[in-house]
Amino acid sequence: LFAYLLGLPLAILLVLTAPSGLKPQKLVYRLLDTVVNIFRSIPFLILMILVIPVTRAIAGKAYGSTATIVPLVIARMIESSLLEVDPGVIEAAQSMGANIPTIIFKVLIPEAKTSLIVGATISCGTILGYSAMSGAIGGGGLGQIAISYGYNRYQTDVLFVTVALLIVLMQVIQIVGMKISRKTDKRVRN
Predict the structure, then answer these.
(1) Dist. CA 129–CA 83, nearest whole Å
(2) 169 and 175 Cβ atoms separated by less than 8 Å
(3) Residues 106-139: pLDDT tens digits?
(4) Within 10 A of 97 (CB to CB), how many other CB atoms are there?
(5) What number of other Cβ atoms are within 10 A of residue 157's Cβ?
(6) Phi, psi (degrees; rounded to nearest 5) at 124
(7) Fewer CB within a 10 Å sphere, N or C end of the chain?
């Protein structure tokens, strides 16, 4: 949820200010694109450690389940969904006199809805994996159970059960997300 709340405005800004966007702004686009690409290039475990000062400032501490929420928010999948929208649809809206907010909220986002849902499904799966990794820095949850009990205490049964639970959770996320995306896809008969 937080990844989309923060990511959607950032992605819209990237799409709008791109050289082929509705409001090309070369400097703004390059700056945003560079920052986002730098964060995407950093492996998640290292990113969690790098943002500890930010996490501490926002959450009041740098460990525990509350603190690990902050690094989980950093994401970028939305821009690619918005870029999938047929430029002809946007041009048609412009030719009918639609302004930029109308194009964003009545054309761009609705046309990208299915792709955004697929991206959210993938992001949820990724975040599930990241939250399991956050157990390494005291993030709690299944990751911490697997590490603390399964690995550190040599209780392989606990390790296997947590892995099984993670697999089940991932499958539920995938099935639900893909069903929702198929229902919203106007190209597919429901």
Answers:
(1) 26
(2) no
(3) 999 999 999 889 888 888 888 788 777 777 777 7
(4) 7
(5) 9
(6) -60, -40
(7) C
Q: How far apart, in whole angstroms, are the C-alpha atoms of residue 52 and residue 54?
A: 5
Long-range own/partner contacts, residues 103-109 (CB < 8 A, 24 or more apart): 103/22, 104/12, 104/16, 108/12, 108/15, 108/82, 109/82
Q: What is the torsional sign of CA 55, 59, 63, 68? A: negative
pTM for this structure? 0.70
Count of residues making up the chain? 190
DSSP 8-state code for residue 136 = G
- Name the region of 24 (left: φ>0; alpha: ψ -120 to 50; beta: rest): beta
Question: Are the C-beta atoms of residues 88 and 145 closer than 8 Å to each other?
Answer: no
| Helix intervals (H) in the chain | 2-17, 26-41, 44-50, 52-59, 64-72, 78-83, 87-95, 100-102, 109-133, 141-145, 156-184
Two tokens, residue 11: 């992605």
Q: Judge whether 29 and 12 are in contact, CB under 8 Å.
A: no
